């Protein structure tokens, strides 16, 4: 029991460490993206930024977001195993967050967290090896990082990614079979899928499904999806303002950034909160997004572009219900977060300054 407790404490510390290092990256990346996209135009291809200066701002923000998941995984591994875990964690975090393998699977922040933890523990084991003194000096900078990256990289690509790709293809088929049978249920499922991994394979499956229907002139499922993408970051951002005893001082700038990201439909703004408290955050945002998606479908809201958040309001059919669906979902998520999240220790709050 004590060993299990130590592992849980190690993991909690590792996740908190990962989040602490990505906070400035999320804030900078999110604000730059919000500023740039706010000047964009809604087109059938999504939000397009035409001003070159704002495009440069957008590129900088996108760079921040591209770094967020690798940094998260790297510092999870670092917390568990020290410096030798940093390179494998970051490289494998990048791998998890980008399409790879024959199925071009990406597992997002959940996959990155898993690989960060696996890297940390595998590096820990490697550090117990008895090796000659001549090799010992190059172990942490050459042998251990190469070994861990290769072993876990191959395991991820050939063992983990393939069944995930197959499962996602099956999920698209199931959703296609539901089209036209139960709008409310379909909207709820799309909403929950959108929130569960915030940019990961399940979220991307919902996106692929709605884009395929858009190509056939069916826009309501995309409406549900684009309502749902905004709910997690908006809910977490508003929750930091309302339920102040549930968050540390370090969480407050993340909350502000999450609100901006929610307004422009970037679900990933909720990721740092989910990493720190997955048991409270995931159910809250999934239920809120499911309700928002169901309300949207029930009222035949149609989003005509592949983007989300209030920024696309001019190109939405059923604007009133688009807004109502989004904010009902946000209100439900905020309420659930208030009751599911525990009050933070005041000492922890002070040390986070």
Describe this structure in words.
It is found in: Cell inner membrane. It comes from Alkalibacterium olivapovliticus. The structure is a single chain. The protein is mostly helical and 353 residues long. The chain has 2 domains: 1-169, no CATH class; 179-353, no CATH class. The chain has helices spanning 2-37, 52-81, 86-96, 108-126, 133-136, 139-178, 183-196, 201-214, 220-228, 231-242, 251-263, 271-276, 278-298, 319-340, 346-351; strands at residues 41-43, 46-48, 302-303, 316-317. The longest helix is centred in the middle third of the chain and has 40 residues, at 139-178.
- β-sheet strand percentage: under 5%
**How many domains in all?**
2
Low-confidence stretches: none
Please state the overall shape, judged from the principal axes of the Cα atoms.
globular
Write out key terms for the chains shown.
353 residues; 73% helix; two-stranded antiparallel sheet; two-stranded antiparallel ribbon; protein-N(PI)-phosphohistidine-sugar phosphotransferase activity; mainly alpha; 4 strands; PTS system fructose-specific IIC component/fructose-specific PTS system IIC-like component; PTS_EIIC; membrane; 2 domains; 15 helices
